[in-house]
Amino acid sequence: MKRKLPLIIVLVTGIFGVLTYIIPHPIIQDTDAVFRNDILRVIGAFSIVLGIGSILRHHFIKIKRKAEHWGYSWITVVALFVSAIIGLFGGIDPTRPGLLPTQVGGFSFHIQSLFTGLIVPLGSTMFALLAFFMASAAYRAFRARNLEATLLLVSAFILMLGAVPLTRMIVRELPSFAEWILAVPNTAAKRGIGFGISLGILATSLKIILGIERGWLGGGE
Amino acid sequence: MALSCIVALLLCTLPPPGGVAARDVPNDAGGKIAVTWTRSPDGSVINYRVLRQAEGATEWDTIGMAGRLASRYFDEGAGNGTPYRYKVLAEADTLQGESEPSGYAKAAPQWFNTGRIPSIIGTALILVIFLYTFQQARRGAKMFIRRIAGLDAVEEALGRATEMGRPTLYVPGLSTIDDVATIASLNILGEVAKKTAKFGTPLIVPNRDPIVYTVAREVVKESYASVGRPDAFNPDSVFFLTDQQFAYAAAVDGIMLREKPATNFLIGMFWAESLILAETGAISGAVQIAGTDAVSQLPFFITACDYTLIGEELYAASAYISREPLRLGAIKGQDYNKLIILALILGGTLLALAVDIRITDIL
User: Fold this and answer.
1) What is residue B5's predicted lDDT score, i.e. its pLDDT?
2) Nearest-CA residue of chain A relative to B138?
3) What is the annotated signal peptide range for this record (chain B) (predicted)?
4) CB contact under 8 A, A200 and B341
5) Per-residue pLDDT tens for B98-122?
């Protein structure tokens, strides 16, 4: 039963998912909305508890064993508790204050200010690194190790040149050739991959609904 | 006096829109009526005002405005089962032209979306082929599956990690459990975990989504148990990091540089962080096997990783590694379906060319 029940739930919800695609009636659509918006949110809320448990266990083990860089684990744990306390008792923003006084001079420690003042800039910093990684990846690609890499190199080179005003002036046909590369071979390849992906998704969905693929159950029969 | 009133009335009137008709919008959940009309021939019309009257009511209510070029309006506030009729007013500055009322129409929800019949037939055909190949596989038919270099390299890459005494890192993508790419990745994780359990190689699985984390943990645990090594499973090897995209990327980069895994698997759904992860992995010197169905991220993986599972190969991977007949049947089904799609594209192209040539000849 431990194995059969999840399989039955998957079969029923899988068939229900197909029905929502072909039946527009509110009885089906509203039930689907309840599944997606309410039931999944409740499950998501429970899973956050498991996630937090995982973070704490992972870092407490590191601290206990004094593993390499265990000091960072303290930072993570303290940051987690501080943000949780501010989030629970410090209010969302100055217009919705909480139980704790979180205004220090002109600075507010509300959860929204923590998000916009810390998470957003830190995330942007990581995103900015992408520019440097692109440069190193481009160098790697431009070494033309094999036929595919050479094709990638040549087409990228033409596309880049096609976008530069100076080369446009020298070779007039280059921009339209670059556009042709994007519109014809590139689009054709993308659509080819798209067909494969769609069929792969169909096959995987079918395998899951019919219980052939049970990896998500944790494997086993 | 009477004459001046008549003249004023004529001057204040525009030619009204004609043929106002109302009908229920088909294939929807109800509550929507489409109102259509023929535009007023007067070029000075600025907009059309749509009026509605429920059966039995005496008042006409304005329910919306449409631009001067519009000839259709959707009343999205109609109650199911209530008969309504509509009038359309052409408006230009102070002038108005009022149409005759339409007939009554009722909004109603439908039980079947007829607009989806072609896609239902297409999907049904594809499914029939899949069921046929499953049946063939069940009967033990030999299935030829082309070699996929990235998957052939899995064992070698894990062997390398074992020899070097370093861990294997498995990133199951950044999407949620309702993404099929994530499910495909978890299926591959199960096969990879079986091999790491056999080889005794430490496995690290950081997760971005708490639900994916719980499933991944069970997958790895069961895989260790299925190869007779439940004791080797380290519950702390599968963990939740954060649900913030770039915080997750930073944390995984940290793991790559601190733990120095010999093999990195980046399999599942990725967005802008794909290159940040793949380049850091390449810098750390790990053998990298990536796989995604995010077409825009594929060039990054192809550039920075040793092997890349492109699109459908991601979905074929668990079958390819496990060699389980029924799963292989699904890959064969995919191949047959692709063959049919290819034949249809070729046929369609030839037909289009033939029609084009004939039209050119006529011209």
Assistant:
1) 47
2) A212
3) 1-21
4) no
5) 999 999 999 999 999 999 999 999 9
Which candidate from A61, A124, A133 shows the least CB-CB separation from B276?
Answer: A133
- Using the Cβ of B111 and the Cβ atoms of chain A, whether some distance falls under 8 Å is answered with yes
- pTM, 2 dp: 0.86
User: Does the beta-carbon distance from B240 to A43 stay under 8 Å?
Assistant: no
Residue entry with tokens 């109302």: B22
Q: Whose CA is closest to B151, among B312, B337, B13?
A: B312
Contact flag A220-B315 (C-beta cutoff 8 Å): no
| Confidence check: pLDDT of B184 > 50 | yes
Q: Which amino acid is at B8?
A: A
Under a CB-based contact definition with an 8 Å cutoff, are residues A204 and B315 in contact? Answer: yes
Tell me phi and psi for residue B161, to 5 degrees.
Answer: -60, -40
**Chain A closest CA to B137's CA: distance in Å?**
12
Quote the tokens at residue B37: 């009309």
The answer, yes or no, to whether residue A86 has pLDDT greater than 60, is yes
Kindly report, residue by residue over B187-235, the tens digit of the pLDDT.
Answer: 999 999 999 999 999 999 999 999 999 999 999 999 999 999 999 999 9
The answer to whether the CB of B191 falls within 8 A of the CB of B321 is: yes
Q: What residues of chain A lie within 8 A of the CB of B191, using their CB? A: 215
Residues 6+ apart with CB under 8 A from B71: B36, B37, B38, B39
What are the pLDDT digits (tens) for A137-176? Answer: 888 777 766 787 788 888 888 998 988 888 888 888 899 9
Query: In DSSP terms, which residues pair with A201 in a beta bridge?
Result: none
Within 8 A of B138 by CB-CB distance, chain A residues are none
Return d(Cα B78, Cα B30) in angstroms, integer: 8
- N- to C-terminal Cα separation, chain A: 12
Four-CA torsion A71, A77, A79, A80, nearest 10 degrees = 160
B67 CA to chain A: closest CA distance, Å?
Answer: 30
- Cβ pair A26:B29 closer than 8 A: yes
Contacts of A125 in chain B (CB under 8 A): 246
Is B218 an 8 Å CB contact of chain A? yes
